[in-house]
Amino acid sequence: MEAFVTDISNGLAEDIGVSTIAESAVDAVIDALRSDMNSTGESAKSSTLLDVDREMDVLVVARELFSSILARRIAALRRQHNAMLPINKLPAELLASIISISVHSQTWSIAALWNLASICSRWWHIIITTPSLWTTARMFKQPQLALRKSKGLPITVRVQYWNHSEGEMKQFMEIVGPQSHRWQFVFIQTTFTDLLSSHLGRPLHQLEGLSLGYHGGWGGSSRQVALGAIPKLRHLRLTRITLDWRMLTQISLETLSLRNLRQAHAPKLQELYQILASSPRLTSLTLFELEEAVDADGFQGEPLFLTRLRTMEISRIGEQTAIGLTNLLRAENLHGLTMLVKMQGSSKPSDFQALLRPSQRSGLLSSAIRNQAWKVVYAKIGPESLELSDKVIVGRAAPGPLSLRISGASGYPLLLYLGGHDRGYDIDLDITDSRLRREDFDQVLRLIDPLVLRVGSDHVYPTMMALSTLPPPSQKWICPHLGEVHLMSTSLPDRNTIVDTLQVRNGLVETVLPEGRSRLSVYNAAGEVFVTETASFSPKTASPSPALQTFAMNNSSSLLEGTSAFAIAESAVDAVIHALHSEAVNSSRPSAKLTALPTIDQKMDVVVAAQGIFSNILAQRMAAVRRQQNAMLPINKLPTELIARIIWGLLHSKTWSISTLSSLASVCSRWWRIIISTPSLWMTARMFQRPDLVVQKSKALSFMVYAQDWHHSEDDMRRFAEIVGPHACRWHSLSIRTRFIKHILPYLDDSLPRLERLSLATYGDMEGPTNRLTLGATPNLRRLELSGIGMKWSSIARIPLESLSLTYLHRSHVPEMQQLRQILASSPRLRSLALRGLEDPVDAEGFSAEAVALKSLCVLDISNIGNHILVGIAKMLQAETLLSLIATFTIRPGSDVSHLANLLRPSSEDSPLLSVVRNRRLNSVYVKISGKSFKLSDRKFLDDTPRARLAVEVRGVAGYEILLLLGSPDRGYDIDLDTTEYELEGEELIRALRIIDPLALRIGRQHVMSVAKALSNDLAVPETWFCPNLQHLHLSVGSCIIGEIAEDFLPKDRLEGTGAAAGRPRLLVYDSNGGVHSPKAVSVKHRGRTSDGTYDHQNVE
């Protein structure tokens, strides 16, 4: 490094650029770090402060140079790393094709492109410079960027959401409309079709696919779109959109879909026939909810042979239109057929003969069945319908490739057109709800000859009789190919009838029977097969019925069979099984030796053994990989003590539980060992959470005991006490809530040297035997919380407590006032005192003692306690640091309220109320009075603010009497007084207001005129002014009435603010809605206020 500095001082910087020198310096530093990481150069010596500043400037410039050089090198390394990746060795054209496939495999979006572009700079450059990736313009997806990046290539325009406004649609069309000559595919669903007309009417020479959908009511003008020249159009889908159908007769379409068109909009059958005739390459045809064509009745034409048509849907269209199409169309390569036709009075079953009869090879139904290679077709006839499907229809199953339903006429005559058994496929016939007559039923069975027959309760007995009838020698059996009969009824015929039918059909009687019949099985509605030997239905069927197997094979195929992974796994299993079998055969132990031809059980044992071997190997390899992965994690390189400290912090961040500890221990074996061997992690013994384990693992350390769930039994509490009780000397904190406190009390008699917190709560019959606690030596006790349980109070009279809470104690348990004073006097660092639900002790009335100064007390809660103990606490306490005061109590009717003066009247600097006001820096407090209560709070809405730090409530006495105790305005704080719910006499209110002089006043309708008159009768002498500090007046009346009151009664100088110089601040008047009255006009200006009811004076004009 010295040589390098010498070179610079010798003037080499004049011949070599600064950046070159800096690069040499970087090289030198890197070499030094590689050789010796701990070597450092001598620091520069500076003689003056100016030299130090110059040296700092030099270092700042050097840092910038080094940062620039290192940034370039890091970027070069990243490029080198990316270049070595196999995918980045692909040519740019091939990579662009891969990205194109990835983007177009899902709905195109600009976000998908940005995600791919953020992978590396090469991908970003390829995406940004490949126009074929930007050929989709979608609404809300930066269409202008897609148009710019796609350059001159054909584009796809998409609007696939109905919930856009007319303005958004207009803006989108202004972007993509000028590029209509580049449109290749258009997918638009909108309510504003008028915005498309001007663009679709232009020549669209690139357009290959058009999908338009209108979303709106049927009324008004028809949604007709005029198309320009579209020579390349191949795919057309219209929903509630009509065109000039004649122009489509000159275009060869490949897919056509027309949906939801009324009669005035739908094409005529002649036009539709011409459109199909001009499209010999049509592969998909959908006609859904089209009204009857005007020329459909009696339409005649030559058959149309659509050899490439594969899927066809004709649903809910006019019956004559459907009949005409099914009679004219021939599709020998059809694979999917969906039809839903309702016959009206003008049609008859013979109109569907061409569709149903299998004699026509290129007919729609026979073509779909033949091309799908279906062996069985499900047919269900009803009183007014015929349904055909490729699967058994159960409930509202999703339609399959074949779904045909003709309704509006009896299914019986339609079914006869399917012909006999030579149709080329078998039928699963369901006549459960057909209501067929007996003669029609026999004709259906003889003509259709189904493979499966499903009958209801009306046809169970006739079916058994017909199948068991022996035919004459010259005739055939009825339904000779019938293999299954499903009795879909709960009421079955006599079991002997079924036995006789099966014996006759299956050749079990001694009679010479003709050949050519199938074996018959009978099933009930639950799928149970009938067994002839036992004459009952057996639920233990060895295999599913042949019909179910046939239906399962119609559309099923193995996804794994034939792949290399499947072949390798199969070979491995065969090899292991063969090795296990050879080892067992050659075993020297007779008990383990297998025969040369093993039985089924022995084969099963071998397979189970092979399964165990594979499982063990995979488990071992996965465990090794997990150990390697855990060893490489940075956290497992930390010292054991530091990991234990981290786990300790996690446990203390929430409520300790054994489940949390178990979850952390299951991370890895090292964490498990650390947790098991660290006593400080086992610091809480909870009921139902293995307290015995906590006591054992914590060793000699202190631990906390918790049982805060009331829902436990006495046995649970007794067992818990027996576990943690013998270790009471190690208790750090004890928190118990139970009805069975007697089981834990004996352990508190002993010495508890480590106990810092004691919290006991119980409930029960307080008039019965007293629950009294006898506490042993507790020198470190700082927090005591007792609820429903008393104690020997002298045992804690000398313990310096920091928190004391006594709640809901019976009178026999409440400490005497003298004992309570001793406890407080011995706790000068007490921060929280809570006395709730305590009755007056025996010495409370007339108690007088010296005050106790608690200079650390911050929280005081004296709620629902006796009046005498309340007076004693108020007189005795001096808490100049008090931050929270909660006091709720009830005064008996007719009682003297003057004893509350020590609590409310600010005559002493150490009164609890004034201490809270002063320490919390409250400028005003909210006071609400009614006929039976007095409420005081630091927030406006006392009942809805549980976080209030100042809340005093006196019940059982008129709030007017308590209000007078607050004294004159020199109390040290202002009052926001609310009298809206108090039926107070006007004179009494005026007298109270003269004493209190509030900052804000809220009055009801009954007091509006009294207060207004008092303000209007203000005298000019300052000593007699009425409420000189009043600045906010809330009146429960409307704004118009306020204008009249202000005009007639309220003083103008206070409303306009001109009397401030005389000592009367501006008065703001509010209406019932919170609006501010303007003195210049009879109007109200609304403005917001904060959530706690304070006033924003900056917004008042």
Written account of the structure:
By secondary structure, this protein is of the alpha/beta class. Helices cover 34% and strands 18% of the residues. It is built from 35 helices and 42 strands. A 16-stranded mixed beta sheet has the order 1-2-3-4-5-6-7-9-11-14-13-12-15-16-17-18, sandwiched between helices. A hairpin with a 4-residue loop joins strand 41 and strand 42. Helix 3 crosses helix 4 (49-84) and helix 6 runs antiparallel to helix 7 (121-128). The longest helix is centred in the first third of the chain and has 36 residues, at 49-84. It is extended and about 125 Å long. The two termini are 74 Å apart.
Question: How would you summarize the topology of this molecule?
Answer:
Elements: H1 2-9, H2 12-15, H3 18-35, H4 49-84, H5 92-104, H6 110-117, H7 121-128, E1 136-138, H8 143-149, E2 155-159, H9 166-176, E3 183-190, H10 194-200, E4 209-214, E5 235-239, E6 255-261, H11 269-277, E7 284-290, E8 304-305, E9 311-315, H12 319-328, E10 329-330, E11 336-342, H13 353-356, H14 364-372, E12 376-382, E13 385-389, E14 402-407, H15 411-416, E15 426-431, H16 438-448, E16 452-455, H17 460-467, E17 484-487, H18 495-505, E18 521-524, E19 529-531, E20 536-538, H19 546-554, H20 564-585, H21 600-632, H22 640-652, H23 658-665, H24 669-676, E21 684-686, H25 691-697, E22 703-707, H26 714-724, E23 731-737, E24 757-761, E25 772-773, E26 783-787, E27 790-791, E28 803-807, H27 817-825, E29 832-836, E30 852-853, E31 859-863, H28 867-876, E32 877-878, E33 884-890, H29 901-904, H30 912-919, E34 924-929, E35 933-937, E36 950-955, H31 959-963, E37 974-978, H32 986-996, E38 1000-1003, H33 1008-1016, E39 1032-1035, H34 1039-1048, H35 1052-1056, E40 1068-1070, E41 1076-1078, E42 1083-1085
